[in-house]
Amino acid sequence: MSRVLVGVKRVIDYAVKIRVKPDHSGVVTDGVKHSMNPFCEIAVEEAVKLKEKKLIKEVVAVSCGPTQVTETIRTALAMGCDRGIHVEVSGKDYEAMGPLQISKIFAALAKKEEASLIILGKQAIDDDCNQTGQMTAALLDWPQGTFASEVTIDGEKVKVVREIDGGLETIKISMPAVLTADLRLNTPRYATLPNIMKAKKKKIANMKPADLGVDMVSRVEVLRVDEPPTRLAGVKVETVDDLVAKLRANGTI
Amino acid sequence: MAAVGTFSRVVRLSSCFGRRCRLISNSAQRRGIASCIDPAHGLSDEQKEFQKMAFDFAANEMSPHMAEWDEKEIFPVETMRKAAQLGFGGIYVQPEVGGSGLSRLDTSVIFEALSTGCVSTTAYLSIHNMCNWMIDTFGNTEQREKYCPELCMMDKFASYCLTEPGSGSDAASLLTTAKLEGDHYVLNGSKAFISGGGDTDVYIVMCRTGGKGPKGISCVVVEKDTPGLSFGKKEKKMGWNSQPTRAVILEDCRVPVTSRLGQEGQGFNIAMRGLNGGRINIASCSLGAAHACVQLARDHLLVRKQFGETLSSNQFLQFKLAEMATKLVASRLLVREAALALQEGRSDAVSLCSMAKLFVTDECFNICNQALQMHGGYGYLKDYAVQQFVRDIRVHQILEGTNEVMRMIIARSLLSESG
């Protein structure tokens, strides 16, 4: 019986209209509604389901960031995780934080907690990196089952059906392993009122990246953030020849 | 009327993730985005969790269906049972009989959030909760164990029967009699405007066991299919169409004395105690509708253009929106304060509940009505949710004690105070 680490990221709520800061250094986050990354919700749901099937013993929800991320950990606890770990990162470190730093943290935690599975969302809806799962597996030298739309545990192995461009691919990997959740893996449950109340009593441990021996220095520097260009009106043409001429004129062909 | 296409419905097919593909159209509930009216302000972390969950449930399970439930007059039993599985069947009922054991403030927050998905269904949920609480609070062990667990899971549904054709505001003058015959009461009379009537299983009936006035009234639980219990026709209403409303008719309806809640003569008191909480809940439903309408109006103003600019550039509309937001926040504060007063057993609780019901149902109706006006002609179409919010919350100014009766209660409290 084993322990699963689930990563949950606090992101700007999907329904919010994103605005770029006037200095183009990033997007406005102050006073903006945040919630758990939808793919992380799916990851939590999968972990909790595995626990309910008694295939794993304990689910630990992990989040990296300032104090506010504890709200996201609490939501994960209310969905059924057993305990949480809050890795404190704030200020400039938090702004520069990316998949590489997170995967180093997860790799260190996986060893510390003796986890057999790490389940993450396939990507976050704010940066759309789709890298953390893969990097974590590489750092640990563990197999990875990414874009999972179906997960079955079979003894010491995991059968993963992956959504790929050509269709569905089924692989069998040994544990310990890293999985990343895709959209159709499951439908996340609503936390029930009793579970929300029980979550209050569950523990969230606090630590810093330095405690795990992780350096948070970023190798990536964000130069500028802009909105996508506003959509221009189209042009109507009368004949196919006109169309070809126009496409040639603007360099498309 | 200009083609609806020119005024683009704000359809944002945000990339297909999350619970299901969520088309954020003009009819859907918004997720608390404008920060000055954010209903999460001032709440504890735990309350924010309840609220978030209730908002999610409302957005996913209720909002997409609210128009259909209204048009086809569907009583959404399955959706309410799903809500019950999350703990919404007995929110302030004690856990030992299956309830969630939460406070009045928690309850208000939850109903406010659910109401953004469908006012009518949430209002019925609140009535069901009120009945459940009455049995939990005034029932003996047998009664609590018999009814509350099933009501909490919504395996059974409840109705509150006080009003009669001849006694609305003057509730204490009710005429339904309950004559003691051996170990049974024989009930005769009729109740009017009963929410859920005919489709629910458990009827909390206020009836006269003694003399005239409130002291002669007792509270009796009548189960569906009891011989002598029948129903009138389903009423056709302006709103609240996702719950059936019928007259409840009692003709020599025999119920065991063991079905009486509390003592003989205590019935009116039980009914009024139930209504104190019920008033907060109804006011909370109005709040949710107003919150949804302010967001809808805001979004419309940002999109609709006339005279070469968006309506949001028009100062009159900006000011109107600001007034709506201010009244919304003021209403919310009053309801939450009333909820706190009730759960703490403060001496001003009854007056505050009445004040909250009076102020909030009136103000929120005005907010929704104003939001409809801001939509122009589109506001009148059933394609747009704003008209349903207006129709649904209109009745909140009437039931659970008309706003005129609320004034009576408050005036009495003011004028009878000594010193």
Overview in brief:
Chain A: GO terms for molecular function: electron transfer activity. Chain A is an alpha/beta fold and 253 residues long.
Keywords summarizing the entry:
heterodimer, A: 253 residues, alpha/beta, Rossmann fold, 9-stranded mixed beta sheet, two-stranded antiparallel sheet, 11 strands, 26% strand, B: 419 residues, alpha+beta, Butyryl-Coa Dehydrogenase, subunit A, domain 1, Butyryl-CoA Dehydrogenase, subunit A, domain 2, Butyryl-CoA Dehydrogenase, subunit A, domain 3, 3 domains, 4-stranded mixed beta sheet, 4-stranded antiparallel beta sheet, disordered N terminus
Give an overview in words.
The complex is a heterodimer of chains A (about 250) and B (about 425). Chain A is an alpha/beta fold. Helix content of chain A is about 30%, strand content about 25%. A nine-stranded mixed β-sheet of chain A has the order 9-8-7-10-6-1-4-5-11, with helices on both faces. In chain A, strands 2-3 form a two-stranded antiparallel sheet. The N and C termini of chain A lie far apart (about 60 Å). Chain B is of the alpha+beta class and about 425 residues long. In chain B, the strands form four sheets. In chain B, strands 3-6-7-10 form a four-stranded mixed β-sheet. Chain B has a four-stranded antiparallel β-sheet with strand order 4-5-9-8, with no helix packed on it. In chain B, helix 1 (about 45-60) runs parallel beside helix 4 (about 105-115) and helix 7 packs antiparallel against helix 8. Mean pLDDT of chain B is about 90; it is low at about 1-30. Classes of the chains: A alpha/beta (about 250), B alpha+beta (about 425). Chain B: Belongs to the acyl-CoA dehydrogenase family. Chain B: Its cofactor is FAD. Chain B: Isobutyryl-CoA dehydrogenase which catalyzes the conversion of 2-methylpropanoyl-CoA to (2E)-2-methylpropenoyl-CoA in the valine catabolic pathway. To a lesser extent, also able to catalyze the oxidation of (2S)-2-methylbutanoyl-CoA.
